[in-house]
Here is the input.
Amino acid sequence: MKVAGIVAEYNPFHLGHDYHIRQTRQLTGATHVAVVMSGNFVQRAEPAIAEKNARAAIAVGCGADLVLELPVAWACATAQTFAFGAVSLLDGLGCVDTLSFGSECGDTAALSRLAKGVSGEPFNAAVRAQLKSGLPLAAIRERCAVSLFGRQTALPLTTPNDTLAVEYLSALGKLGSCIEPFAVKRIGAGHDSERADGTYRSASQIRSMIRNGEAFSAFLPQASAEGLEEEIASGRAPADYGKLETAVLYALRRMPPEEFRALPDISEGIENRIIKAAMQTADLETLCLAAKTKRYSHARIRRIVLSAFLGIRAADSDGAPLYARVLAANEKGMEVLKAAAARGTVPAVVSASQIAKLGGRAAAADALESRTDAIFALCLPNPLSHRPQSGVKFAPVSNIQSTKRVTER
Here is the structure.
């Protein structure tokens, strides 16, 4: 058995994701693919287009063998925290051989060299010295990398997937992991691109098409298109963050400053700008534009706002996740779980009762997940169609038509 791990959001699962899994199997010799996937809220600080249960089942129907959930405190965090949480789960299984990720450059060795450089103290010291410049952290990191390592070496920090790849590699280093990294060169439209590129479209563009009622099936594998169309027909997609807008503003207006200061990514009094903007604006986009600064990007403000609304504190993502919740698995996925039970350091769980036995921070993390899942339901066309998490969906699948649940606990 050779297991390849992938970190993803599958929001939704499109042809580029299908290509990534196929290339991973072909080029690494992987016999099993284990995915760590964001749940109902994603890193861009908004609800996913469809429920995590459906997205996980679709992923297994499209080539993955096992889908684990990245808890919300890590899923909605900075790139560094997002990557560390996801890679920690894969490493904690104890049986993952390869970490496969999409990359603009496709050069694993070059990305590894850069990751080693940005993890060193000379780089961190250079970044700290630049923090008072008022520039966004991403720009500071790029500037310091160019200064220390040269423009060519630092080039991956200018593209989104390579930047995230560097964080995956840095996480592997911090963990002392034996997992081997493998970069798959991306094809088609770039991350968040609205540019048409044959049948390969970005997830952002496909989400826009879905929300606008446009035909989207040509840009997804058949199994993914059929699964997503079923979710739409059942009133479980697409999720709409706009339905929560007034509730988010209400939550921000009633929060005392001390609670803001406990949120992730808060520093230098940015909470005061957000509080002021929340009091003076009536929609989230205007709020984010009013609160953003040269240093604090729009994306960073969005993550802080969502964290405030969902009740995510900075302490919630300290360290690594303490359990791996299984969302979907086929027979090969069950083989991965069997190997993880024998060699892993992070327990794989399928129910809240299993997490409750872990107690402490694990139980608190699951309680947070349950609350955010309930909030997510309010984003759906039919909130009453929401399916609460009640256990893993085991499915012997090769395509979505065969995802009949054979066990549900």
User: Anything to note?
Assistant: The CA atoms of residues 123 and 148 lie 7 Å apart.
